[in-house]
Amino acid sequence: MSELPTQTYRVTRADLVRYAGASGDFNPIHWSDRVAAEVGLPGVIAHGMLTMALAGRAVSVWAGRVDAITEFGVRFARPVVVPDDAVGAEISVAGMVKGIVDGGLTRIDLTVTCCGERVLAQARAFVRLPGDTGAGA
């Protein structure tokens, strides 16, 4: 089995604003420290789908193209707290090729962390790599 190179992405409050505009998700837990605290969060958090998208980006970079991903799923394990500073939060995505499954797809298990804590659980992607014929393995 082969290990994928770890990819790191920085998320700032400005990124949250841009993502809110693109996604239409203006929930105040993604921009207001006061509201985040009122609902029991440790601070403003990144959109879960943004975190998932960054993990997907890591897979597509490794695979060499976005359309190589045929299936992708995660469970949200813990929020990514994004401080109100110029540094933001750092999300690391590591992967391990677990083998070829029926249909000739390559299974990749991901480890997605922030501040040393796993933020996505059961993160798994299936990709069709160049040269895959689609025949069962």
How would you describe what is shown here?
With 137 residues, the chain is α+β, with helices and mostly antiparallel strands. It has one domain: Hotdog Thioesterase (Thiol Ester Dehydrase, Chain A), CATH 3.10.129.10. Helices cover 24% and strands 37% of the residues. It has three helices and five strands. It has helices at residues 13-23, 33-38, 48-63, and strands spanning 3-11, 69-76, 89-101, 105-114, 117-127. The longest helix has 16 residues, at 48-63. The model has no long low-confidence stretch (mean pLDDT 94).
Short structural description:
By secondary structure, the protein is α+β, with helices and mostly antiparallel strands.
SSE map:
Layout: E1 3-11, H1 13-23, H2 33-38, H3 48-63, E2 69-76, E3 89-101, E4 105-114, E5 117-127
Keywords:
137 residues; Thiol Ester Dehydrase, Chain A; five-stranded antiparallel sheet; 3 helices; elongated; Fatty_acid_synthase
The biggest sheet amounts to: 5 strands, antiparallel
Strand content: 35-45%
Shape: elongated
Oligomer: single chain
Look at the structure and give the CATH class. Alpha Beta
Counted up, domains total 1
Number of strands: 5
Radius of gyration: 16 Å
Separation of the first and last Cα atoms: 16 Å
Domain MaoC-like: 7-98
Protein name: MaoC family dehydratase
Pfam families: MaoC_dehydratas
InterPro entries: Fatty_acid_synthase, HotDog_dom_sf, MaoC-like_dom
